[in-house]
Design goal:
Layout: E1 2-6, E2 9-16, E3 19-25, H1 41-54, H2 72-81, E4 90-91, H3 92-98, H4 105-113, E5 126-127, H5 140-149
Helix pairs in contact: 2-4, 3-4
Length: about 160
């Protein structure tokens, strides 16, 4: 695992032979021992992009990633989520419709909760119909930070 320090907190990046396999945001990194920090070709490619992203630049993450161990429905939801543009949000119902399951917004939410590579697969860009945040596996603090970074979040009145 490689740990990148950002102004928002630490980001952990794990890889396997297929590509980026996990991104861990913030507090969960306290459990990682320092001797697990490694670098490889995927890390060397993603770190400059992540640094630019956390400086507020729009970044298209063009890198191999691995979600092959996840259920097929979850993979489908995550691949569709990857298409949401920087600075834009959609709601869970809209995402459910995009994957051909218009009545499955809760199942879509569950699939997003199992996203192992947030930011690259931007599940933070999926919100509730009323514009409120919904959930986020790394916590709502991170979801707000990422949406604000992309200028796509306004506090609800």
């Amino acid at each position: 695992m490689y740990i990148l320090k950002t102004k928002f907190g630490n980001i952990g990046v794990e890889t396997n032979q297929r590509g980026i396999s996990k991104i861990i945001l913030g507090i969960y990194l306290k459990k990682i021992s320092a001797n697990k920090i490694i670098q490889n070709a995927y890390i060397k490619k993603i770190i400059p992009d992540l640094k630019r992203y956390f400086l507020g630049e729009s970044v298209e993450f063009d890198i191999n990633y691995d979600i092959s161990t996840l259920p097929i429905f979850t993979q489908k939801v995550l691949k569709e989520t990857r298409k949401i543009p920087y600075g834009k949000t959609i709601n869970y119902s809209e995402l459910a419709s995009r994957v051909g399951k218009p009545n499955a917004s809760r199942a879509v939410g569950q699939a997003l909760a199992n996203n192992p590579i947030p930011i690259i697969i931007p599940c933070h860009r999926v919100v509730k119909k009323d514009g409120s945040l919904g959930g986020f596996s790394a916590g709502l603090r991170w979801k707000k930070l990422l949406l604000r970074l992309e200028n796509s979040y306004r506090e609800m009145s």
